[in-house]
Amino acid sequence: MATAQSKRLASIDDKQQKLLSASWTEQYEAMKGKLEKGHFLTDSKTDTFLANLLANICTQNPSLPKNDLRILLARYPWPNASQVGEGTILLNIGLVSHLENESQLAFVICHEIAHYVLDHVDQAILKRIDVLQDKATKKQWEEIEKTEFGARAKALALLKELSYDAHRHSRIHETQADSLALALLLNTSYDASEALSCLGILDNIDDEDTMALHLPQIFTASDFPFNPNWLKLQQSAFEGAKVESELDEDSLKTHPDCVQRIARLVPRLAAYEAKEQEKASVAAFEHLKMVSKFELAWSYYFFDDIGHSLYEAIRGHQYWPQNSYYVGMIGMCLNQIILAEKTHELGKYVAMPDQDFPPQYNLILNFIQNLKLSELSRLNYHFLRDKRSADGGEFQVYAWWKNCGIVGDSTGQGKTEASYLQAYPQGRFAKEMQ
């Protein structure tokens, strides 16, 4: 048990100790399960870089409980970082892929360290425990359950009250964490002014869908031309209808608006002079960022979000058309879509187009919905066949092997299997082939 957790237990009553300990056990089991399922990325270069970054922050802030702290690079594609509660910081690749430099990353880590030092995770747990154990709240729920008419409206009203109160506390926690994070960062050799740049990136992180995707160029083959009808917009039965949230979305945001967060920090940096980063450090950060960018397509695939995986794979393919990983990821996504269509389970893996989605992501979703099953199979076959000039990496070879099975090319599948197992005997797809 982390030192800070031991102190927290000693400061609360026996009943709270029992409930908090039970929550920690749940967290531990959840983390253990994620580790076993491969939710975290590791390689010597990124591990060393993140360990050194954390060590730098702790060395220059000697009051921090450095023995409690560690960073795990999570393959989660959503742009976030989090603090588990016992000192473990989860750094999502979906956030790292958007950052510009190590100083911005250091601010993110300082922010999560601040949550730990300020006891925010356990405070939130104890707050939920208090709410659930509150006699008045229990009585309100019991009365609602007995209500014959209007129970839903009353339940929603109580849920609003409880949610707004909890998220109000979360917003306060975020403001406190920003303040302490900047104080920690100012003690280091990192450029503290990048805290503002980092928050600016977060404020605009949903507006980066600017690369136009050229599907006709990607999927046109001499003997299987691209059909313009595949890009037609889906006509939804609910088109034009606007579903209003019954909860005030702004009131449920746990993080305050980034513009407000920046405004609170600006006065403390008024006389600050920016620092220049070491070249070696810049190179290590760029490696981490590149790993994170490349992992996005596979991570969405790993979590069965095939629509987003295909979107990221096509974006990557347009940047690096000869990169076999992106060729393979496109092929793997289309294979999975074909199999899902055959079992009428496409909805498990691909969302329907929605006016609230980014335009280019919606383009991919419409494309998937417009293709017939027979067209999908042929499209993927011709795409993979015509991309054999790429370097034939593991993902590309696997995608071709799978597609040969789908189209019934047993000879091609057998040759591809032999080729894969010879080149990648311990590869990530070897067991499936064997």
Which characteristics define this entry?
four-stranded mixed sheet; single chain; 434 residues; mainly alpha; 4 strands; 19 helices
Describe the overall structure.
This protein has 434 residues and is mainly alpha-helical. The protein has 19 helices and four strands. The chain has helices spanning 3-10, 14-37, 44-59, 93-96, 102-117, 120-133, 135-146, 151-186, 194-203, 215-219, 258-265, 279-302, 306-319, 324-342, 359-370, 373-386, 394-407, 410-423, 430-433; strands at 40-41, 70-74, 81-83, 88-92. It has a four-stranded mixed sheet with strand order 1-2-4-3. A hairpin with a 4-residue loop joins strand 3 (81-83) and strand 4. Helix 16 (373-386) crosses helix 17 (394-407). The longest helix has 36 residues, at 151-186. The chain is globular. Mean pLDDT is 84; it is low at 164-169, 237-245 and 247-254.
Task: Give the topology, please.
Layout: H1 3-10, H2 14-37, E1 40-41, H3 44-59, E2 70-74, E3 81-83, E4 88-92, H4 93-96, H5 102-117, H6 120-133, H7 135-146, H8 151-186, H9 194-203, H10 215-219, H11 258-265, H12 279-302, H13 306-319, H14 324-342, H15 359-370, H16 373-386, H17 394-407, H18 410-423, H19 430-433
Parallel strand pairs: 2-4
Antiparallel strand pairs: 1-2, 3-4
Gist of the model:
The chain is mainly α.
Number of helices: 19
**How many beta-strand segments?**
4
Compressed to H and E, one letter per element, the order equals: HHEHEEEHHHHHHHHHHHHHHHH
Q: Output the structural class.
A: mainly alpha
